[in-house]
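Recall that a protein's primary structure is simply its ordered list of amino acids. Everything else, from secondary elements to tertiary packing, is in principle encoded there. The following example makes that idea concrete.
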Amino acid sequence: MDTEDTPRNTGHELGHEGVDRMVGQVEGFCTHERRRIDLANQPKILGLRAELAVWDDHERVLEERLRQAPPPGDRRSRRRRACYAGGIALLLTLAGFFFSLLAFDPFRFGWKSYLYCVGIAVVSPFLVEKFLEEWASRKLVKSLVTVACTAAIVSLVLLAVIRGDLFAAQMKDSETPVLVTGDTPAAPQDGNQFYGETLPLLRLVMAFLAVAMELGAGLALHDARTLGADSGEDSEKLSEDLVELRLRMAAILAEICAREQEAAVFEAGFWRDFYRAMLTHTARKALTKLLTAMLCACVLGAAAAHAAAPRLNLVVLVDLTGSVAAKGPDGNTEFEKNIAAVGGLLADVPAGSKITVLGITGNSFAQPYRLLSAEVTENPGYFGERLAAARRGLILLWHTRAARVEPRARRTDILGALLTASQLFAQTPERKRVLVIYSDMRQDTAELNLESPAAIAVHSALAQTEKRGLLADLRGVHVHILGVDAAGRRIAYWEGLRQFWASYFEKSGATLRDFSTLRNLPRWQPR
């Protein structure tokens, strides 16, 4: 028996048993905690599902109200269109009545044929209109319009064929007949076969015309009722309410999913922290020995990085258009807030900074409006006194210049200002480049208009920008967009505006750091 190995084996076994017991206890705790989270979330999930069901019913009600609401447009225009559609339906119904009367005339039903013809002329448009009203599908309406149009065109083509045959028969009958004299009997001549040959085509014409007329009458009646309806509902307002409702339902679904996954997220995070703690404890002794060396290296590296940090090239764009002249609840306009925010920005610039403040006008690229151009000394002073004096001078100069500026521009050329800023950045490629924009970011020029639409089509607007060469070269620039107010707009419009500018700066090579309605001072160091 090897007595020297016995203590080692015993210690090894005790160590394994201790670790296994600890892991078992940790697993038990994790299992019970996960069950507790599931039980705690079940009532909340049920409540959220009930709330989602209520909103789902409300969504169906809104959809039905939107379907019954009159289409967009002023009431006088809708009435004219309703009268036009009603007149078309009446004419087609009268045509169907007379065609039915002609069909019943050979049977000699007498006065009873009028009753049949009236019913036939009225029932088809009525049933087509009721069919469209009950199904209420744009695809169905398009399909019926396609069928009616095809039937009408085919009937016209067949009528053209019949007219051609009639012309040929008339030409044949107009030829001078041959008079045979003598005892030789005349050869029998074939009779005119025009009516026999064109009878199938005429039947097809009647069939296709009947289909086109009845469907056209039903569609015209449906348009007349839809345009003539005056339920008092605003279709645009209902559409906006429906969008907001669906966004709220999406938020509820996201919360339900988060609560259902909360237990699994807890378990994954728990075991991650557990194993990380074990690894940290195992390596703690080795890290302790290297702590002093690492701290020294970090301090020296930070000092070197600070010494070698590039100087700042700061370009600030300030909106000078009339869209920022509206006053807020505090009595101050967005323009006044932007001017004050620029002053706070200048009070925080680091040493060695180059600052340029440009105004956003209706022609920002062709006629750039430079409000301020300055450069801060690289030597901050032993106690920072030189840097503080430079900042005070900048603030005083800015308030003097800003006192003479008013937001009077009628258009908003943000893209032109960005092109001008890209040229300023290109002059100092060795500096760290930061672009700060104080604007509502509603581009309003002939090339691109983001002010008028109720919702922004991000992809088409971005494609239009690239096509017209309005994409600035902003590679390596850190962009902070502040004071993007949503005055008079819905959240969906503001979100579309944010997505457009995020995509724009991504394509231009810039890094968008902030896009906010607030005006917090940006951090100069990259995040």
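Confidence is low (pLDDT under 50) at residues 301-308. The beta strands are 312-319, 354-360, 369-375, 432-438, 477-482, 511-515.
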